[in-house]
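Database export, one record per block. Field names are fixed; values are copied verbatim from the stored entry.
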Amino acid sequence: MKKIALAAALAAGFAGMAQAQSSVTVFGVVDLAVTQTTASGNGSLNQLSTDQNTSSRLGFRGTEDLGGGMKASFWLEAAITPDSGVGGSTSTDNKGSVNPGSLTFGRRSTLELSGSMGEIRLGRDYTPTFTNLTVAHHPFGTNGVGNAGQLFYPVAANGTTPRTNVRASNGINYFSPVMNGFQLNAMYAMGEQLSNAGATKNDGNYAGARLSYGNGPLNLAYASGKTNYTTSANVANDYTQSNFAANYVLGDAKLMYLWGENKVGTTKTTSNLIGVQYKVSATGEVRAGYTALKATGQAASVGDANQIAVGYVHNLSKRTALYTTYSSVDNKGAGKQFVVGGGQAIVTPGGKSTGLDLGIRHSF
């Protein structure tokens, strides 16, 4: 009996140690809004939409303490669309898009090892260039009718539809420790094409880096990345994304500037944003931004454009918030490319697109 009791005590002790050294967390966000959008020559659209403040998701993450300052961890995060219940899309080769409609861990799927020298992530993750487009550097991030994606994402051209402006698959992603306010993020991702595939053997290969600096109220970051693409005519039509973000906290206001450039082959779009996030109370924040886009070498339907957006977020608790956003995008000349997020296409050249969100976000 004594031996059995001792064995049980030892087993309980080891179980307690294992529990203390490792953990697994289930987390997520559910975001739904009533959205109305209009487009010149195409009427208006009312819909129940998702991701208008924060992207809806379901995730699992875990960490194990290896000792000596080393940790191993994993992160599996899937996009969900609670208005219809279907899953999100992903890309297996950074070239094509796959959307089975079921749950895929296309938002992030990584295995990590971290320590005093930084962190290495293997798998599908954000590209370094996308980080500057998030809500930390843009008033609305890449969500809703005010989002950065409308004027800061690439335009497909000459047979190339870029897939790495947000995430890349098959990646090796490194994050350095923060040293005197500076941090480096570098990523290489593989398109995994056959070596005897000729001109397309490098398709989907991505390489990019981001250098950031944070010191008190000031934050600065520059990032650039390139993905190899070859069109059906065996002509290089690579995609390059570069951006620079700066923000400064002044009292209750965070003042923002964001520059972004997207090159697809010989075509280019360049955008400049000025914005603000202003805390009007302990629970409320006003957001606003103005963006101007310049198009170069594009088709006639892709012209210059401007966007204005204003919104308000009211936190009911640490996990739940109400929000509303209004945005308007004006296309110049014969342009009709740019519309507010989730809206229908513009029919009239030089047309306008507007959008209004009224929603709720809950995280868990």
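Remark 1: The longest strand covers residues 22-39.
Remark 2: DSSP finds two helices and 18 strands in the chain.
End of record.
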